[in-house]
């Protein structure tokens, strides 16, 4: 039998195989080998090294832009290591093995592929109802890989992701959780690895009337602050943070009706001051433009047009790289949608990937 096709999917169980190297076909037998195909994406963003080297092609270069080999005996465990080049940043492995670590181990019990992803433009943080966390690696609106967070250990259903922000200023956005007990906690992250946790304000709890709504920087000191909403009185309350340490608090001078829920904080009008985005029980979305604690404007987004029933705002950030903040929605059935804006002016709506696993929800944008 002749094996025809890409190296990644070429069967090695026939008596003769052929593989493409540099565009020309090579015939090969022996067949007691499995194929391993790997590369970096984008192609020049990083390098991939393999240990052990491919046995039947020891001279194959693992530093060229595209890497492949047919040279591993069944059962061989191959260690693949991805390294950044220049200012590129490793994100994740995808393919036969999904991992957030730059080093993975691939057991050659079949033909395998492994792609090292670099330079994702942001992550989606998903949470299951049992507390388990996962990350989607996004390149703009496209999901390019997914992996579980925190070694799949479930947090329990008492803690829910409330937002993200770089609290310890290490360049990686951290995860903010709200507890059902009124407490707030942080996971400090290095990329998508948890490197520490903090009970904010030493575990001080507000009453259950207060909902930890979003993360924003309300005094423009580059330290993210916490925004709470009172479910009944319409008050908004800020915990100012100094890094991971609680500093002080303030209650805004404006109240909002209980049908309006704070759903995101982002700088929509680009004046470097965090604005507060609300969604009404009817679905319509509005923003308070802020200058620190001072409200400078109030706008019904998309002229107050509500999305179809069941769509809830998850968060806001620039999803297409045009410098303007956009708004991400999730429907009860897991579908995802982006409203793209230019400042506060609505531009267009697009459906993107769907969260299809039961019990999983998109909770925050990172
Ligand atoms: Ca951080
Ligand atoms: Ca701040
Ligand atoms: Ca603003
Ligand atoms: Ca945008």
Task: Explain how this protein is built.
- It is a single chain.
- This protein is mostly beta strands and 366 residues long.
- The protein has strands at residues 2-3, 16-21, 24-28, 34-41, 46-51, 66-72, 77-84, 90-95, 103-107, 112-118, 122-128, 133-139, 142-148, 159-165, 174-179, 184-190, 193-199, 210-216, 225-230, 236-242, 245-251, 260-266, 275-280, 285-291, 294-300, 311-317, 326-331, 335-342, 345-354, 360-365.
- The protein is elongated and about 70 Å long.
- One calcium ion is lined by residues 217-219, 221, 223, 225, 240.
* CA radius of gyration: 24 Å
What would the principal axes of the Cα set say about the shape?
Answer: elongated
Strand order of the largest sheet: 6-4-10-8
What structural class is derived from the secondary structure elements?
Answer: mainly beta
Number of helices: 0
Oligomeric state:
single chain
Whole-number average pLDDT?
87
Spans of 5+ residues with little confidence (pLDDT < 50)? 1-17, 26-30, 58-65
Number of strands: 30
Main β-sheet description: 4 strands, mixed
């Amino acid at each position: 039998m002749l094996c025809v096709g890409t190296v990644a999917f070429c069967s090695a169980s026939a008596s003769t195989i052929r593989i493409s190297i540099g565009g020309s076909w090579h015939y090969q037998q022996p067949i007691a080998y499995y194929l391993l195909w790997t590369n970096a994406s984008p192609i020049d963003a990083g390098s991939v090294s393999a240990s052990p080297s491919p046995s039947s092609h020891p001279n194959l270069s693992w530093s060229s832009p595209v890497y492949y080999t047919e040279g591993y005996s069944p059962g061989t465990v191959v260690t693949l290591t991805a390294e950044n080049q220049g200012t590129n940043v490793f994100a994740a492995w995808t393919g036969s093995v999904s991992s957030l670590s730059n080093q993975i181990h691939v057991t050659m019990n079949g033909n395998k592929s492994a792609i090292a992803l670099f330079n994702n433009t942001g992550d989606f943080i998903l949470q299951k109802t049992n507390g388990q966390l996962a990350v989607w690696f996004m390149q703009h609106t496209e999901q390019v890989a997914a992996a579980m967070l925190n070694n799949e250990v479930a947090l329990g259903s008492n803690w829910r992701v409330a937002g993200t922000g770089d609290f310890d200023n290490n360049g990686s956005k951290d995860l903010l959780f709200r507890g059902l007990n009124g407490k707030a906690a942080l996971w400090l992250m290095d990329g998508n690895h948890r490197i520490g946790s903090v009970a904010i304000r030493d575990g001080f709890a507000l009453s259950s009337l207060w909902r930890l709504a979003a993360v924003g920087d309300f005094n423009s000191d580059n330290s993210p602050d916490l925004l709470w909403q009172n479910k009944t009185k319409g008050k908004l309350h800020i915990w100012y943070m100094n890094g991971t340490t609680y500093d002080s608090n303030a209650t805004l001078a404006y109240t909002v009706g209980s049908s309006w829920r704070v759903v995101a904080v982002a700088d929509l009008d680009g004046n470097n001051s965090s604005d507060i985005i609300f969604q009404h029980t009817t679905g319509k979305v509005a923003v308070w433009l802020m200058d620190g604690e001072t409200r400078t404007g109030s706008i019904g987004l998309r002229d107050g047009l509500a999305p179809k029933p069941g769509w809830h705002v998850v968060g806001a950030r620039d999803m297409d790289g045009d410098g303007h903040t956009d708004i991400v929605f999730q429907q009860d059935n897991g579908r995802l949608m982006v409203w793209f804006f230019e400042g506060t002016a609505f531009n267009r709506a697009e459906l993107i990937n769907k969260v299809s696993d039961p019990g999983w929800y998109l909770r925050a944008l990172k």
